Amino acid sequence: MDSLTVMHNVPVKVVMTEAFRTQLVEQVRSSLAELDQESARLNEFLQQAAEVEFRQRLDFELQRVAQQRQQLEWRIREAESVQMGAELNFQTLPVMVQLKVGENLQEKLGIEVLLKDWTIVEFRGGTA
């Protein structure tokens, strides 16, 4: 065998712009609103629940929702504090990469994608 195809996660970075910041904060606020609705439903169930086990599960879910809320609030603060033009790790994308005998593995897998306002502006590193 002289080649192998593998799955590799390619990092995607994003350049912070006002448009991206606004969209990101709006998405997080939407998620916060959904969590608030979920919390309200859980509290209603909790008030009506009589069984101890069920109440404990509801309490656990309320704690989980509260933790998610804290994480989302942290994301908003983080997004608002990042300087314009800064590059942030955004996500990873799974891609298929063909590796061949004699190739430099670091060059083959060392690629990243840069976005600006959801448009790909650059592929960095690596080889095709």
Task: Explain this structure.
The model has no long low-confidence stretch (mean pLDDT 92). The chain folds into 2 domains: 1-16 and 84-128, no CATH class; 18-81. A 4-stranded mixed beta sheet has the order 2-1-3-4. The protein has 128 residues and is an alpha+beta fold. The protein has helices at 18-48, 52-81, 105-109, and strands spanning 3-15, 87-100, 112-116, 119-124.
Rg, Å, rounded: 22 Å
How confident is the prediction overall: mean pLDDT?
A: 92
The tally of helices reads 3
* Low-confidence segments: none
Strand order of the largest sheet: 2-1-3-4
Strand content: 25-35%
The structure class reads: alpha+beta
Secondary structure blueprint with pairings:
Layout lengths: L2 E13 L2 H31 L3 H30 L5 E14 L4 H5 L2 E5 L2 E6 L4
Parallel strand pairs: 1-3
Antiparallel strand pairs: 1-2, 3-4
Helix pairs in contact: 1-2
Brief summary of the model shown:
52% of the residues lie in helices and 30% in strands. It is of the alpha+beta class.
Quickly list its features.
128 residues, alpha+beta, 2 domains, four-stranded mixed beta sheet, 3 helices, elongated
